[in-house]
Structures are given as structure tokens and as C-alpha cells.
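Supplementary Note 3. Input sequence used for the single-chain structure prediction.
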Amino acid sequence: MWLDHTADSAVTHVAEVATTTTPEALLACWRLTVPAPPTVCYHWVVANEQGGERAQAPALAGGTARRSHDMLFRSVPGAGGGPGGSESLITVLVAFGANMLIAVAKTAAAAVTGSASLLAEAAHSWADTGNEIFLLVADRRSRRPADPTHPFGHGREAYVWSLLAAIGLFVAGAAVSITHGIQELINPEPAGHFAVGYIVLAVSFVLEGISFLRSVRQAKPEAESLQRDLIEHVLATSDPTLRAVFAEDSAALVGLVIAAAGLAAHQLTGSPVPDAVGSILVGALLAVVAVVLINRNRQYLVGQEVDPRVRAAAVQALLAEPEVARVTYLRLEFVGPRVVSVVGDVDLTGDDTESHVAVRLRALEARISASPAVAGAVLSLSAPDEPTLVV
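The predicted structure, written as C-alpha cells, is reproduced below.
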């Protein structure tokens, strides 16, 4: 299920089953699809991750939606151990294999030709190969279940290891390429055996293209179903492994074109300067990509909250519960790829005793936390003087 939070409406969708277009329909869908709030929490996460665009789906008779929990798992990529998570792992493995082959080929070609651009590309590919190992570790460690010392799980480890991978790209890729390019300008050396360089660059382009198409294959269906631009979707996703592979492969394809141009200019002019400039340009490209990836992982480590419009729809969904009279505070924050924590203050209906109210709160928390996309929920009672959230 996906939640559409456009400026004019807050709408929830049961993927491939129902499309609703008004807040009233959202509340009706809440009551009919769940016996409990967890399902809606599930939708909040996916909605924010995909930027809140609308996922189109057919409607059931009467305009309401009913789907089993199993169907919901299949309709939302990567949530709760669904296909998105396994697809990310495959994407990283494909990238690792391609980059390893490319790194070896480029290193041999750089040694034979003496090309600065090829050496820069070799450093780039070795950096990417090392980064895939970090991403594999990120995928594995972030899936560990919650324990007493980590009640919200280990999801944020994905951003830690992805951050290290981005730093590796900056140091081993960008810094090495720029440094070598500058050294080549100061102490130029002639290159030779240009045909070997061209062949290796062509083969590398094919292998990088295969890896890139794999990441596109994973991201494109999600982006299309939500009517989003592919690049915008990749930048917005809470899956750092998908973002890293897509960005690194994109940079690799551009870098190969730059390296080929530098090598050709070196051959035509007989001057190593264009080749050295190509090495510097490749390094600058990698630096930009690394900084973008570092910043996105930093944002998720510090605490990335869902979109305000998703939060507003979530408040509406909570208010639709018969036992919730008011919501005075609600925060949904990502604690891992496609997983959030829920913290809120609510005022329950009735005048139960303190012990009964505590039981009702714990029951509501348990229902929310039952969602595979909710790491945990913590609810408190609202004070009488606290203003009600307006949505």
C-alpha cells in the first residue's frame, strides 16, 4: 500500500487494488484494510520513501479497499523482507562482479599504455570494488533483528557502511585521480599502445552498462508507478545501496567517456596534457558523486523524518481510530531502509483509570509496531493543555 500526499489531498492506496482521492476515503480505507494501525504505518514509510507520489491501482466495488497482509507484502518493494531488499543485494553483487573485472582490465591497460586517464579509471574501479564490499556489509548488518540494546533494530548500520563506502570513493577514487593528473601535468610522460586502451575502455563500458541497467531495473518500476523521475527517486530513496550503485555506475560511464576522449586527444596531439586533464576531470566527477552520497547518508544518520504531508495523513489515520480522541504530537523517523520509528502523544477517549489507560496505550503501540515497516512505537498521553495537531 502506498500513501499519496499531494498538496491537495492525503490519499492512501492499496497497491494494485484501490485508489482513493479524498481524506474521507483515506479514513474509510484505514478502517476497512486493517484491523489495526500497523498497516497504515507501513504505508507511511513507503509513501515518504517514494516522495509521496501516487501509485495508481484499480478500485474495488464501492470505492473501498481490502487486501490481505500477504498481498501487501508483495505490492511494496523491499519492505519487511520483500523483493526490494533481495533486489538490492543482487544489484550490489552484479556491481561487485563487474567492477572487479573492470578494475583488473584497466590496471593492466594503464600499465601497458602509460595513460593517465586510464590509471585514473583504474583507481575509480578499484574504489568501486571496495565500496561494494562495504555495501554488502551494510545490507547484511542492517537486517539484524532488534535486541534489548537496540530496540529499533540495526537499520541505521546501512547508512554507516554506505557512508564509509562514499568516503572510500572520495579518497581512493577522486583524490588519487586528481593527484595523478596534476603529477602528469608537472612531469608528463608519453603513452603508447593506444589500441589496448580503447579495447579495455569499450569492454569496461559494456560491463558498467550491465551493472547500471541492473540498478535501473530495480529503481525504474518504483519510480514509474509513483510518477517520479528516475534520478529524483534514487536520490529520495531510503535504500542507500541502490543509491550508491546507481550513482557510482553513472559516474563510471561518464568517466569512461572522459578517459576515452583524453586518450584520443593524447594520441592525436602527441601531448600528454589532455590525458592528464582527463584524469583530473574523472577525479572531480567522483568527488561530486562522493559528496552527494556522503550528505544523503549523513541526513539519514542524523534523523530523516517523513514528509510533513505524510505525517498529516498519518495523524488523520490515527484520529480515525475510535479510541483516539486527539493527537498532539507525532514523529515518524527513518531508522533504516524502509523502516521507521513512531513517537507520538495521544488523548484516548473515555475516562478510564490510569491502569486501564496504560493497557490501552500499550495495545495501540503493539498494533502499530506489528507492521514490518515499523521498528517500534512509543506513545504517551497528551496533557490537557497541549494543542491538537491540525491537519
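Residues 2-75 form one domain. The longest strand covers residues 324-336.
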